[in-house]
Amino acid sequence: MILVTGGTGFLGSELLKQLTDKGLAVRALKRETSEIPPIVKNITLIEWFTADINDLSTLEDAFDGITQVYHCAAFVSFNPKDKKNMFHVNIDGTSNIVNLCIENNCRLLHVSSVAALGDAKKGRKINEKDFWEYDAKAHAYGLSKYEGEMEVWRGITEGLDAVIVNPSVIIGKNAGFNGSGAIFKLVKGGFPFYTNGATGLVDVVDVAKSMILLMEGSITAERYIISSDDYHYKDLFTEIAKAFAVKAPTKEAKPWMLGIAWRALKFFSLFSGSEPSITKDAAKSSTVLSYYDNSKIIAETAIKFKPVAESIKEITQHLK
Q: What's the CATH code of the domain at 167?
């Protein structure tokens, strides 16, 4: 039987849909307070199991009869306040999953992130041979995903059958205005600024499809970047604005402007009690030029990625 962690999340729910569309029975983990997304709410092939990846007492029971595990659960944040919780979930939680996979002889597919690959080396795209290099100023999310991935590599040295995927920014209509959907909300609202950065994007459908293809294959002890296209933020925002029929951002937010913005928002948050909309880590990430090499996953699975331009059209049509 198959176990999926993070089953109520954006990626986890899409994965559950694709697995059950193939007629496969799946056990999916959810926390006590989590709501089941509409996309998978009425699928009878899913057995919902309430457990926390940081609570071994309940997690152990979830592995009964399991042979394959998709580990999608993660804590994503660019707020320094979340560092402790993020490390607890992304590192300690992953360690628990790895140990139980070894104990129960399960094949593991671990969802890491391109954030675990570090910054680009000058003059070339980031590939699977790149690893995060220590940087005292690096954001906590990237470090947590790197350390979490290291737990999987540790398990592999102990005999774990595992494969790792490193998706870029995952987009899709079912994100709504949350997560990566916040980008669409920002542009739709007439945000006038863009940053001189670039990143990779990929449709959630293709990420889940790649994961299933890798799990069903025989490859082990490998990692794969899952990314469709690289986009400069100006081009991305312009394309989204065009699809929403709103004015595209025309003003470049310089690094010094972002520096003032995150400091000011942090200061005001002390009085308002609300979380700042821009943090130091988010501001820094938005100015980095990151391009990703997806040739390895294409060679392994022959997957044909949906162009990001097509995904943008689908998402904006849905959000209208």
A: 3.40.50.720
Beta bridge partners of 37: none
Which tens digits make up the pLDDT trace of 231-289? 999 999 999 999 999 999 898 876 645 454 434 444 344 444 555 545 555 656 676 88
Total structural domains in the chain? 1
Close Cβ partners of 111 (under 8 Å, ≥ 6 residues apart): 6, 11, 70, 71, 72, 74, 165, 167, 211
The span from the first CA to the last CA of the chain, in angstroms, equals: 39
Rounded CA-CA distance 138/140 in Å is 6
Pair type for strands 46-50 and 229-232: unpaired
> Max Cα separation, the chain?
56
Residue 264 within any structural domain of the chain? no
pLDDT at 267: 39
Asked, for residue 273, whether it belongs to a domain, the answer is no
| Alpha helix segments (H runs only) across the chain | 10-21, 56-62, 83-87, 94-104, 140-157, 181-188, 204-216, 233-244, 255-272, 280-285, 295-301, 308-319
Write the DSSP symbol of residue 67: -
3-state DSSP assignment of residue 73:
coil
- Whether residue 66 is contained in a domain is answered as yes
Task: Classify residue 190 as left (phi > 0), alpha (psi -120 to 50) or beta.
Answer: left
Q: What is the pLDDT of residue 265?
A: 41
pTM listed for this prediction: 0.92
pLDDT for the residue numbered 285: 67
- List alpha helices for 22-93, DSSP H: 56-62, 83-87
Structural domain boundaries enclosing 44: 2-172+202-228+291-305
> For 279, what's the count of Cα atoms within 13 Å in the CB-facing half-sphere?
14
* Whole-angstrom distance, CA of residue 47 vs CA of residue 40: 11
Query: In the Cβ-directed half-sphere of 264, how many Cα atoms lie within 13 Å?
Result: 6
- Taking the mean position of all CA atoms in its chain, how far away is CA 249? 26
Query: Is position 111 within any domain?
Result: yes
In which residue ranges of the chain is pLDDT below 70? 122, 134-138, 254-285, 287
